[in-house]
Amino acid sequence: MKELTSRQREILQFISDYIENNSFPPTVRETAAHFSVSIKAIQDHFTALSKKGYLFKDEKRSRSLKVLGNVNKKTREGYKIPVLGSVAAGKPIFCEENYEDTIYLSEPFIKPGNSYFALHVRGTSMINAGINDGDLAIIKQQSTANDGDIIVAIIDDSVTLKRFYKESTRIRLQAENPDFNPIYSQDVKVLGKLSHIIREYK
């Protein structure tokens, strides 16, 4: 995970707070006005934050900013972790644009200095890795992966949870269920690595 500059961290914090207070993200113009800088400067910061894996923006939609990792806010309840929607553990599904909820986790589940987010698991393609439909996946944000890591990745604006393998000319995202075929792509954006699974027993 690449480190943020102090200004990038301020911008990410502003976006996170804005979403929390308004239930939708700020525009480029609103962000530029808040920091008293040019729109071009904010666009450059958004691009840098996206490349570092901290921000997602759909260029075809307005107000589509999504913070992909928490800004490591610590409260009395613990570290504040955003739940960003659902991740497919079968076929990929389109990324949710808004926060669903917030959960609070403490050490040792959360290691200070790292950023985390949470996603609901849908599907059974990772069942042989002990990941079930309905689980809550806690993801440590990072933009790189090693062979065999269970990662969250974006492919064509869809998000999925699979094992990562780098082949000579492509990336293979491997299921942990023989009923599901691997996903092959040359354009995979790693969002983070699986840290923990939270399961509710009924």
Give the tags:
two-stranded antiparallel ribbon; 2 domains; single chain; Arc Repressor Mutant, subunit A; 13 strands; 11-stranded mixed β-sheet; alpha+beta; 202 residues; Umud Fragment, subunit A
Could you give the topology of this structure?
Layout: H1 6-22, H2 28-35, H3 39-51, E1 55-56, E2 66-67, E3 74-75, E4 78-88, E5 93-94, E6 101-105, E7 116-122, E8 136-141, E9 150-155, E10 158-166, E11 171-174, E12 183-185, E13 189-198
Parallel strand pairs: 4-7
Antiparallel strand pairs: 1-2, 3-4, 4-6, 5-10, 7-8, 8-13, 9-10, 9-13, 10-11, 11-12
Structure explained in plain terms:
- This protein folds into two domains: 6-67, Arc Repressor Mutant, subunit A (Orthogonal Bundle); 74-198, Umud Fragment, subunit A (Ribbon).
- Helix content is 19%, strand content 34%.
- It is built from three helices and 13 strands; from the N terminus they run αααβββββββββββββ.
- Strands 3, 4, 5, 6, 7, 8, 9, 10, 11, 12 and 13 form an eleven-stranded mixed β-sheet that branches. The chain has a two-stranded antiparallel sheet with strand order 1-2.
- Strand 11 and strand 12 (183-185) form a beta hairpin.
- Helix 2 (28-35) crosses helix 3 (39-51).
- The chain is globular, with a radius of gyration of 17 Å.
- The N and C termini lie far apart (36 Å).
